Amino acid sequence: MRRRPRGGWSRAAFLGLAVALAGAPWASEARTETCWQVAPDSLEITWQARWGETVITGGFRKADVTIFFDADHPETARIRARIPMAGLYASDPEAVALLQDPGWFDPARFPEAVFTARGLIPVGQDGPRRHYRAEGQLQLKGHRGPLALDIWLTPTGHNGWHAEAHAVIDRRDYQIGAGAIADATAPDVPLRIRLNAVPAACSESANSDPADQR
Prior knowledge:
The chain is mainly beta. It has helices spanning 11-22, 25-29, 93-99, 179-183, and strands at residues 34-38, 44-51, 54-60, 64-69, 78-84, 88-90, 112-118, 121-126, 129-140, 143-155, 161-170, 188-199. The protein is elongated and about 50 Å long.
């Protein structure tokens, strides 16, 4: 009869421990996620505002966007976008001046907007084009509120994604607009985003969440 070494572990015990560890909750979560950032000169953030019968278009020239996304597990996606208000532009120069006022964007006091989201909800797919919904939070002019983005992702030939997103923001939720001009301006502002996302070595570690960094 073979005796087990005193104080030791049998081979069967080691195998059992290995199987148990493989089934532990953290083992299923040990997945490598890809970090994505915006390809140079591919970002477009545009909006429309209706003042009476006049439509004014504008946007933001730049944003710092970080995305963690695994196409096989969209529920683990994390998004953070920081948008400097100094990059605001509009089709009407007078509108640009107005939007700097304290009653509107007031970039002197609130220099950036921040959007964060965790998880993408699959909505549908048309060939390679995938439709998701991101239910996140927008921090704008010192106010925070929910913002849902409809996102369409199409794979590109450069190991990346082309992304288009649409949303509608009610400016009143963020105290944007004052005076007679605000009374004549539609509250709902359609927002459109286009970008190309490419794999990147992000500064955040695998355990950090860009949606927590506001």
